[in-house]
């Protein structure tokens, strides 16, 4: 897809310095810029590349001051990083303007869908499903009975959405996500084995949620596992049964949340963090990567470590962890002197 400098300026609300008819057909880093590519300059440390880049068009901040001549056409904006993100979103929307039902695929007679559906080959939609307008379902997606998917949602290849799940509008579900698989519920018996506890609830994903590749969200034992509006989940995350993740919280890759824990609003959870079951995490909490959370956390806390403690306390304690061998050696020397 080709875009001119004039079109880019219109999309981003920027002003042009240079050739308004200059065109681009690809994106590149400013330090790796090539002819016909679009780059952006946001971080001041990359400013020297503006004089060397071969990119045809570069998005820059309004306050950028140049002290040499340059070759690319500039588009000046208030915030070049945000403008570039806006342009990427536009580009992604243009790429996803697919429509129609490919064959072979299967849509149950009991399923309904709105306008501008795209259904990729080898996808399967079961009975009772309700699919909204402008939904894009890529190849090899499985959608179980009675699933609801809101308008403008994208489901990428290989995702599995099991029965009774509810997906909101404007969501993005990446490849190999599994929504609505059975929660990990087993009851020990007197014979020493385990009996499976039926998982009869569902999963509810609210609007504007993005779920990264390979993430699993289990259905509730009773009631619902809920991912609230605006949540962003990275790849390879485990969300267990009856968990609730509050609005606009973000969780990085390989984190795991055990059953029935409640995560507050606007929380930030680092990669490989683990949260035990039946806990309450307050609003605006930050959990550093690889932390192990074993108790409730109050609003606005920042924690790190296993078991997780206040971030500042952890940082001070880490100095002693790191020097523990030295301290022990000093202690042993003192013991010898005292004997």
Keywords summarizing the entry:
40 strands; alpha/beta; twelve-stranded mixed β-sheet; Udp-n-acetylmuramoylalanyl-d-glutamate--2,6- Diaminopimelate Ligase, Chain: A, domain 1; 339 residues; 2 domains
Account of the protein in words:
The protein is an alpha/beta fold and 339 residues long. It folds into 2 domains: 3-95, Udp-n-acetylmuramoylalanyl-d-glutamate--2,6- Diaminopimelate Ligase, Chain: A, domain 1 (3-Layer(aba) Sandwich), CATH 3.40.1390; 100-314, Hexapeptide repeat proteins (UDP N-Acetylglucosamine Acyltransferase, domain 1), CATH 2.160.10. The chain is 15% helix and 29% strand. The chain contains 4 helices and 40 strands. The protein is flat and about 80 Å long. It starts with a strand and ends with a helix. The mean pLDDT is 94.
Helices and strands in order:
Elements: E1 3-4, H1 5-12, E2 15-17, E3 23-24, E4 26-27, E5 37-41, E6 57-61, E7 73-77, H2 80-95, E8 100-101, E9 106-107, E10 112-113, E11 118-119, E12 124-125, E13 130-131, E14 136-137, E15 142-143, E16 148-149, E17 154-155, E18 160-161, E19 166-167, E20 172-173, E21 178-181, E22 186-188, E23 194-196, E24 202-205, E25 210-211, E26 216-218, E27 224-227, E28 232-233, E29 238-239, E30 244-245, E31 250-251, E32 256-257, E33 262-263, E34 268-269, E35 274-275, E36 280-281, E37 286-287, E38 292-293, E39 302-304, E40 309-310, H3 311-322, H4 324-338
Parallel strand pairs: 4-5, 5-6, 6-7, 8-11, 9-12, 10-13, 11-14, 12-15, 13-16, 14-17, 15-18, 16-19, 17-20, 18-21, 19-24, 20-25, 21-26, 24-27, 25-28, 26-29, 27-30, 28-31, 29-32, 30-33, 31-34, 32-35, 33-36, 34-37, 35-38, 37-39
Antiparallel strand pairs: 1-3, 2-7, 22-23, 39-40
């Amino acid at each position: 897809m080709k875009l001119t400098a004039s079109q880019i300026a219109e999309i981003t609300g920027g002003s042009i310095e240079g050739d308004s008819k200059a065109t681009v057909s690809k994106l590149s880093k400013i330090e790796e810029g090539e002819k016909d590519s679009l780059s952006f300059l946001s971080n001041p440390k990359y400013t020297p590349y503006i004089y060397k880049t071969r990119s045809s068009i570069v998005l820059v901040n309004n306050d950028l001051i140049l002290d040499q001549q340059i070759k690319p056409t500039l588009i000046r904006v208030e915030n070049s990083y945000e403008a570039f993100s806006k342009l990427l979103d536009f580009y992604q929307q243009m790429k996803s303007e697919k429509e129609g039902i490919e064959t072979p695929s299967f849509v149950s007679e009991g399923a309904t869908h709105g306008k501008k559906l795209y259904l990729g080959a080898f996808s399967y939609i079961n009975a009772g499903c309700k699919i909204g307008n402008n939904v894009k379902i890529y190849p090899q997606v499985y959608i179980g009975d009675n699933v609801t998917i809101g308008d403008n949602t994208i489901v990428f290849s290989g995702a599995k959405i099991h029965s009774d799940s509810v997906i909101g509008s404007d969501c993005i579900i990446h490849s190999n996500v599994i929504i609505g698989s059975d929660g990990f519920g087993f009851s020990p018996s007197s014979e020493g084995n385990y009996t499976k506890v039926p998982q009869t609830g569902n999963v509810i994903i609210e609007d504007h949620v993005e779920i990264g590749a390979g993430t699993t969200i289990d259905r509730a034992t009773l009631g619902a596992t809920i991912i609230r509006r605006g949540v962003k989940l990275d790849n390879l995350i485990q969300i267990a049964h009856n968990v609730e993740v509050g609005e606009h919280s973000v969780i990085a890759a390989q984190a795991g949340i055990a059953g029935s824990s409640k995560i507050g609003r606007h929380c930030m959870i680092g990669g490989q963090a683990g949260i035990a079951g039946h806990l309450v995490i307050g609003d605006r909490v930050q959990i550093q990567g690889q932390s192990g959370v074993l108790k409730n956390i109050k609003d606005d806390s920042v924690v790190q470590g296993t078991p997780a403690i206040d971030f500042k306390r952890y940082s001070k304690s880490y100095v002693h962890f790191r020097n523990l061998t030295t301290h022990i050696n000093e202690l042993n020397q003192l013991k010898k002197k005292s004997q």
